Amino acid sequence: MPLAGYRGRCDGQGMSTTDQPSTDVPSTRAQRSADPTLGVVSRPAWRDDSVSLLTRGYRFGDRIWQRVPRGARSAPMRLLFSDALLVRGAEGVAAFYDNDRVARHGAMPPFIQETLFGHDSVHSLDGDEHRHRKASFVSALYEDEQVGRLRPHLEREWRHEVDAWIAGGERSAYDAAVGALGRAIMRWAGLPGTGDAKTRWAERQAQIVDGFGVPYSPEYLLAALNRRWSDRHAERLIQAVRSGRLDAHPGTALNAWAWHRDREGRLLTARLAGIELQNSFRPMIAVARFTAFAAKRLEEHPEWRKRIAAEVAERASLVDGPLATAFAQEIRRASPFVPMLPAFATEDIEVDGRTVRAGGRIVLDILGTDTDDRSWEDAGSFDPERFVGVDDYEAIAAFVPHGGADVATSHRCPGEKLAIAGLAASISAMSDPRVTILPAGLEVDERRMPTKPRSGGRVRAAGSGDARCPFHRA
Asked: What's the 3-state SS for 221-258?
C-alpha cells in the first residue's frame, strides 16, 4: 500500500521522487555563484563542528543546515578535524550507503565504537569481510522464522510487566522494557540463566547504551566497566559452548557466533564472537528508549491508546498488532536513536552541488532525513496513520532509523524486524486500559545522546493516582 505520509515513491526500488532537482536549491549559474557553499568542501580547522555535536545533540543538524539554502540535500561542515559533508534525504542516503565510495572503518569515534559496538565488530568492517560476517547476522536475526521465535517470549514477558503494574508496581516504561525485552531477547538468543540473571545483564547492557554518548561524565566510565564485564561474560559463554559444557541450539544467536568462521575458515576468537553475540541482542534492549518515547506519545494521543487497546482485545495478543506496529514505526521516525552517522569518503563524492574529497567524512543526518519536509508530508507532526497498511518499510528511502540500503549487503541493521516487533509489543502493553501513563516527567533533553523522556514514562495501575508528594516527583 502506498505510504500516505511519504512524498517519495514506495515501489520497492528504494528511490524517492525527491531525486528530482528541487526548486529550493540554486540551479542557475548566477545562483550557484551566489552560494559560496557549492563546490568542494573546505572549512578552516578552527571552525570544527565536533563540540557543537556534543553541546547541541539532536539539534546539531539545525545549525549546519542554516549554512545552505532551504531544501538543500548537503551542507559543508568540519568534523573531528577533517572536512565533511552533511547529507539528508533519499539523495543523501544513496550517497552514504554507496559501498564502492564510502568506508566505515575508523569513521566512528573510538569512544563510541569501543563502548557501544565493541572492538573489531561488524560495524567497523567494509567490503567482502563485512558481507561475510553480516551474513551470519542476517541468518540469525533477519529471517522471518527468527522473528516468529521471538513472539511468544515478547508476549509472556510483557504480560508479566502489565500484571506487575496492575499489582501496584512502579517501574517506568523504560525500566519495564529493559527487563521484558532483555529477558525475551536473551531467551530467543539461547542464553542460559534465570530470569533475574537475564534482567541484571539487560540492565548492564542498557547502561552501556545510556552512557556511550557522554564521554565527559561518570556514566561513560560506568558504561566502559559494564562493557568490560559483558565482554568477559559473553566470552565465557562462547568458550563453554565450544568446550561442550553448554548446549547451544541450532538456529540461536549463541550457536551462530560460537561456530561462525571468517573468510579463511577460522573460528573467531571467543572474545570477538562474544562481542558479536552481544551485538545480536543488545539492539533489542536499546528499544527500551523507543518505549519511553512511546509512553510519552501514548499519553499525548489517548485516541491512539484506545484504538490499540481495542486491537489487543480483538486479537487477544500483545504482539504484531497492525495499529501498534504503525505507532512503533512513527516513534522510530520521529525519535531516532542517534541524530547522525559518519563514514569516510574513499573517492570524491558530490551531493547536490557540494563535494567532499576522498579522505573526508560524509555524515548522514538521520533525524533530518526521517523528518525531512521534502520526503514526508507534514513531517513535523506525529501521525502513525502514515504507516497504517505499510509493510515494505525498507523501500522507503528516507526512513532510516535503523540504517538504510539493503540489509544483506550494506549496513542496515538486520535486527530491525525484531526491534519493530519488540516496540509494538511494548506499545500494546502500555495501552492496556487497566494501567495509566502519568504526564509528569515526559520532557526530553535533546542535547543528550542518546536521550529519552526524563522519567522514562511512569506507568501505574489505572485509578491508583500518584501517591507521591507533589513537591518531590521524579
From this structure: HHHHHHHHHHHHHHHHHHHHHHHCCCCCCCCCHHHHHH
Is position 470 within any domain? no
Number of domains observed in the structure of the chain? 1
pLDDT in tens, 89-143: 999 999 999 999 999 888 877 778 778 887 878 877 888 898 999 999 999 999 9
What's the CA gap between 256 and 370, in Å, rounded? 33
Query: Domain of 171: which CATH number?
Result: 1.10.630.10
Angle at 207 between CA 445 and CA 370, to 5 degrees: 45
Query: What is the dihedral sign for C-alpha 220, 221, 224, 226?
Result: negative
Asked if residue 248 belongs to a domain, the reply is: yes
Task: Tell me the C-alpha distance between 470 and 444, whole Å.
Answer: 20
d(CA 441, CA 337): 20
Closest CA to 137 of 388, 471, 412, 440: 412
Please provide the size of the chain in residues: 474
Residue pointed to by grid coordinates 568540519: 78
Q: What is the DSSP letter of 175?
A: H
Instruction: Supply the pLDDT for residue 436.
Output: 98
**115: which DSSP letter?**
I
pLDDT in tens, 162-213: 999 999 999 999 999 999 999 999 999 999 999 999 999 999 999 999 998 8
C-alpha cell at 127: 567490503
- Which residues make Cβ contacts (< 8 Å) with residue 292, sequence separation at least 6? 172, 173, 174, 177, 452, 453, 456, 457
| Measured distance CA(422)–CA(251) in Å, rounded | 19
Does residue 254 form part of some domain?
yes
The DSSP-derived string for 396-459 is: -TT--BTB-S-TTTSSS-TTHHHHHHHHHHHHHHHT-TTEEE--TT--B-TTSSS--BTT--BE
- Residue 99 has phi, psi (to 5 degrees) of -70, -15
One-letter amino acid of 286? A
Q: Which residue, among 288, 284, 244, 261, has the nearest Cα to 453 in the 3D structure? A: 288
- Is 466 inside a domain boundary? no
Q: Is the CB of residue 226 less than 8 Å from the CB of residue 270?
A: no
pLDDT digits (tens, 9 = 90+) for 53-69: 888 999 999 999 999 99
Q: Residue 42 is part of which domain span?
A: 17-461
Provide the pairing of β-strand 82-87 with 74-79.
Answer: antiparallel
Among residues 186, 182, 175, which one has the least CA distance to residue 291? 175
- The single residue listed with the C-alpha cell 542557475 is 28
